[in-house]
Design a protein that fits this description.
Blueprint: H1 3-32, E1 35-44, E2 47-57, E3 63-66, E4 76-82, E5 85-97, E6 102-106, E7 128-133, E8 141-151, E9 156-159, E10 171-173, E11 179-188, E12 194-200
Antiparallel strand pairs: 1-2, 1-4, 2-3, 3-6, 4-5, 5-6, 7-8, 7-10, 8-9, 9-12, 10-11, 11-12
Length: about 200
């Protein structure tokens, strides 16, 4: 094979990889604008107590998916991005299932960035996955890992993308920005390590 041919093949390979990585980066960056912070407040022993978690928009007119355990009262506030600016708005609880640990909220806004739901049945072991959320004091951060397996006992997706307190309800996405799971729980088994689980997105449908 001539040297010029090899050079062109290397150039094409580089451009293909660069194009794929750029597309993946753009897709993942757009996910952040569709992620929200869910805050609930209630009165306990005469004092106002707050709790927060994550969620994500699934329609442009304000339907939001999160975990049921994030919703500790009907006094719900959602912090989201709109036209490049952060807004805090009241949300209405439309659906809550403690068994599935899923909840659906609604905000009265339109033209919002939202996420496409993917197909969790197409996941393959070792596939890259990205967990979005607002854990601890942070807002809209992402951790990466890979798909490990589908845990039949828990009925959940097991993966290696780290989850932290506050990640609950955020989306688990593939490289193209499609949601395949709802981040739910991290199990710390000491010497055996930490295990991370997300609810498969087909249960949201």
């Amino acid at each position: 094979m001539r040297l010029s041919t090899l050079i062109w093949l290397n150039v094409i390979l580089f451009l293909t990889i660069f194009s794929f990585n750029t597309h993946a980066e753009l897709s993942l960056n757009s996910v952040k604008d569709a992620c929200v912070v869910v805050k609930c407040s209630y009165i306990h022993d005469g004092e106002e107590v707050g709790a927060s978690g994550s969620g994500f928009l699934v329609t442009e007119d304000g339907f939001i998916v999160t975990n049921a355990h994030v919703i500790v009262s009907n006094d719900i506030e959602v912090r989201l991005m709109m036209n490049g600016h952060e807004h805090s708005v009241a949300a209405t609880l439309l659906y809550l299932d403690d068994t599935l640990d899923l909840a659906v909220l609604k905000v009265r806004l339109g033209g919002l960035q939202y996420l496409q739901l993917g197909d969790d049945s197409e996941l393959v072991v070792g596939q890259s996955l990205f967990a979005f959320g607002s854990p601890l004091i942070f807002t809209s951060i992402v951790s990466d890992g890979v798909f490990s397996n589908y845990d039949e006992y828990l009925g959940m997706i097991q993966h290696t993308a780290p989850l932290y307190p506050g990640n609950s309800g955020g989306p688990l996405c593939t490289e193209d920005g499609k949601v395949v799971g709802v981040n739910t729980i991290a199990l710390d088994l000491g010497a055996q390590g930490r295990f991370y689980f997300s609810i498969p997105v087909h249960l949201v449908d």
